Amino acid sequence: MLDVKRMVLLRDLAEHGRVTAVADLHGVTPSAVSQQLRALEAEAGAALVEREGRGLRLTAAGAALAAECAHVLAALERAEGAVRALDAEPGGELAVGCAPSALRTVAAPLLADLAVRYPRLRPRIVQAEPEEAVPELLGRRLDVVVAYRYELLGAPPAAGTTAVPLFDDPLCLALPQELRAVVEREGLAALREHAWVSAPEPSSCRDMLVHACRNAGFTPRIAHDVADLRSGLWLVATGRAVSILPRLLCDAPPPGTAVLPLPGRGRVVEAVVRTGTEGRPAVAAALDALRAATAR
């Protein structure tokens, strides 16, 4: 019988590509990960990884087993959910990761709604960008994640997760008022020589900005790294910078800042859960409340 926890390590190696990354994700040493992978090979009776330079890569057998891990974990999650569904009312702690840009518009209404509809639930909101929150979800340290994905980047939901779309959040161009006329006349390319504000690397927000500018024919000069993009609007208000950011963050631009909608779809704000947990009472309650809150 294959050990499920060891299969998870193999799946994470397939996802992240480095033993050190898997070790960091699980809070263990790289040697411990390697030891568990060797034990999994003994259980499977096949070589699952092989040395490639200073790292490891999955063999064909390893890749096949890693792909099956998602189905195994989803079945186990559904089995656990079937037991919990026998409870009369959802209860216990519910850990919800939430992107900072959705705290006010999504997490706060969710918290209020759950308190009224499911008083036995103890929701705990954890602020985290999707890049941080989804690994925590897969590691079972979070139950639900309010995340987003940019249509420009085309990235699918992470393996082992199910995404429930909540609403579309269009993109906006934030710029000094004095540049508004030229941009309305010439488009995004009029800002090719200007300094840009974006999130620090690595960040899908930054990737989106670079991608949008390259679609307009230039690579932006990102002069300012700002984790809180809403606060970054104050740099735009000085007249010395421009930015692209979701509409959720543009509701109260400072004086001197113009906000122009960009054509096309921006990002999808979604609820992400581990595949197989959708029917678990606490998770189902959160998804139901999130749909209701975002519909309003």
Label this structure with key terms.
five-stranded mixed sheet, 43% helix, alpha/beta, three-stranded antiparallel sheet, 296 residues, 10 helices
Which word captures the global form?
globular
> Can you count the helices?
10
Major sheet details:
5 strands, mixed
Mean of all residue-level pLDDT scores: 87
Q: Using DSSP, what is the number of strands?
A: 12
Order of helices and strands: HHHEEHEHEHEEEHEHEHEEEH
The strands making up the biggest β-sheet line up spatially as 4-3-5-12-6
Q: Please, what is the oligomeric state? A: single chain
Beta-strand residue fraction: 15-25%
Helix content: 40-55%
- The end-to-end span amounts to 49 Å
From the helix content, strand content and strand pairing, which structural class follows? alpha/beta
Question: Which value, in Å, is the CA radius of gyration?
Answer: 22 Å
- Which residues form runs of ≥5 with pLDDT under 50? none
